[in-house]
Amino acid sequence: MISGADQTNTLNRILDAAADNLRVAKILVQLGLDPNNITYDAIFNRLLEIVIHNINLANLCALVGAIFFVATLLTHTMVPLRIANLIGCAFFAGFGALAGDVKTLLLYLLMVPINGIRLRQMLTLIKKARDATQGDTSMEWLKPFMIDRKYRKGDVLFKKGDPANEMFLTVTGRFLVTEIGVSLPPGRLMGELGFLSPSNRRTATVECTEDGHVLTITYDKLLEIYFQNPQFGYYFLVLTSQRLLENIGRLEAAVAQNKAAGETPAEGVSQ
Fold first, then answer.
1. Is the pTM of this model over 0.90?
2. How far apart are alpha carbons 103 and 113 in whole angstroms?
3. Within its chain, how far is the Cα of 79 from the centroid?
4. What beta strand segments (E) does the chain contain?
5. Domain final residue pick, 53, 75, 90
6. Is residue 268 part of a domain?
7. Most confident of 80-94, 139-153, 176-190, 221-235
8. Average pLDDT over every residue of 134-156
9. Are 179 and 82 members of one domain?
10. Would 3 be classed as within a structural domain?
11. Could you tell me the CATH number of the domain that includes residue 192?
12. Best CA proximity match to 195, nearest among 170, 174, 216
């Protein structure tokens, strides 16, 4: 068993060795500088010597990769980040190949196609956002982010007033909004208004009237997509505005129909 005195001596030796190795003079010597002649010219010349000594294609690739990595930390949106990350990974993979570092080569070579796939998804997202300004409100592009779910006839997807935490896209079958009697064919969106309501509650009841399946996406995922690409916010705004205008149109038609039905007897009397 080691005594307390031996432990103290060992700790003191370790601290003395650390203090000796961390002395400024010794560090300067290790850097190739004269502790007795520290000038700006001496430091500059030493740095220039180190740079010239290490100039080669592999290190240039690493330098460019590092520049693009720093760029990813300065970007505020996802697309520029993905582009900078993809280019940086390509240069780091080049460094690994030229330096003979297999681990670095494989790591960054794998990250190149991953960033490429994600970049393509983001560009598709932005394209659809732009198309929304021209009236294209299809949600087909969201499918890669959604989960498949099947329903049978008579199943209730959600009821009015239920807590809402996901949105639906019909793929097959038919679904009925029971409060207004509107049938939703394949390719229609459901549950998006619950995402916008302050209390996140369902505004209507939807029932499956014909066996089919839908794709679902959580509101948390929608928020993630929005913060990655703010253009999606405008796309979603156009989409939900169109749905609200459709509902207003149905309401106006129903009011006009009821008004016409109420005026018909009066017209008969005047005649």
1. no
2. 17
3. 10
4. 147-151, 156-158, 166-170, 174-177, 182-184, 189-190, 206-210, 212-218
5. 53
6. no
7. 80-94
8. 78
9. no
10. no
11. 2.60.120.10
12. 216
